[in-house]
Amino acid sequence: MRWGVLGAAKIAVEKVIPAMQQGEWSEVSALASRDEGKAREAADPLGVARAYGSYEELLADPEIEAVYNPLPNHLHVPWTVRAAEAGKHVLCEKPVALDAAEARTLLEARDRTGVRIQEAFMVHTHPQWLGVRELVRGGRVGELRAFECHFSFFNRDPANIRNRREWGGGALMDIGCYPVHLSRFLFGEEPRRVLGLVERDPDTGVDRLTSAVLEYSAGHATFTCSTQMAPHQRVQILGTRGHIDVEIPFNAPADRPTRVFVDGEAQEFPACNQYTIQGDLFSRALRENTPQPIPLEDAVANMAVIDAVFRSAESGRWEAPAT
């Protein structure tokens, strides 16, 4: 598949584009910025052939079949819809929208235009998480009862997009979306209700510390995420007969194996690049007209849980995700 990239975001230039270039099914052919010089500055070192000075020019390129959208969160839906209307399939960075209602507009755009749209949750197709889900489904820990997660980093730069509330910044949208997604992935259902606690930065207004409890029919998921704490990440999964610790759950290294510990015993997964896998699996699904790895409906459901966490933090009560 011939891909175009909207913008020169750090994750695109440093992670996703180089990874997709290593794939068998993906070719990054163009990059667009609102400034042609900036586009060329990003494209040339990566060997991307075409650089455009506007997103519109890239979407008008008839050779581009699919678009990767790593723009700031508030631009995810507008430019994904415009890409779909231009006949391009879209891989859009998480979170796919600012809320579930906005995410649902992508379902309409997909159905109207006939293109595929997928949220870029690279962890979903990483072998370590597929392996963990297989262990859980196979009864290795007994009946799944609890999913516990901590994910944090420190960033108080007011100019950073993660600290712009009106642009969809904050801890829950940026990194809390991962435990929401993965707990749904492992429990295999939607949470019945959620309870959320939010502390906001007094200067920027973004949630800098968010904790939540998600109640599933079989158990609970709990997590704390923060954009103003020491960098750390860890996931623990507990069942009636055992537990699994995921050593590096989200930023899995591409240059060495990953490990999970099943009742303290290490299980290793070979080194791989989760962004290469993500791009190739979506590209292959597009080329072969087979189901995509993550249906767009999953992105809408994930946003509904995030919405409920925010509502709970305001109401002080349990809130049910809107179906």
Layout of SSEs?
Blueprint: E1 2-6, H1 10-21, E2 27-32, H2 36-46, E3 50-52, H3 55-60, E4 66-69, H4 76-85, E5 89-93, H5 100-113, E6 117-120, H6 127-137, E7 144-154, H7 171-187, E8 193-200, E9 207-215, E10 220-226, E11 228-239, E12 243-246, E13 258-262, E14 265-269, H8 274-288, H9 296-315
Parallel strand pairs: 1-2, 1-4, 2-3, 4-5, 5-6, 7-10
Antiparallel strand pairs: 7-11, 8-9, 9-10, 11-12, 12-13, 13-14
Helix pairs in contact: 1-8, 4-5, 5-9, 7-9
Concise account of the structure shown:
This protein is of the alpha/beta class and 323 residues long. The chain has nine helices and 14 strands.
Task: Provide the CATH superfamily of the largest domain.
Answer: Dihydrodipicolinate Reductase, domain 2
Question: What count of domains describes the coordinates?
Answer: 2
Strand content: 25-35%
Major sheet details: 8 strands, mixed
N-end to C-end Cα span: 34 Å
Helix content: 25-40%
CATH class of the largest domain: Alpha Beta
The total of beta strands comes to 14
Cross-sheet strand order for the largest sheet:
8-9-10-7-11-12-13-14
How large is the count of helical segments? Answer: 9
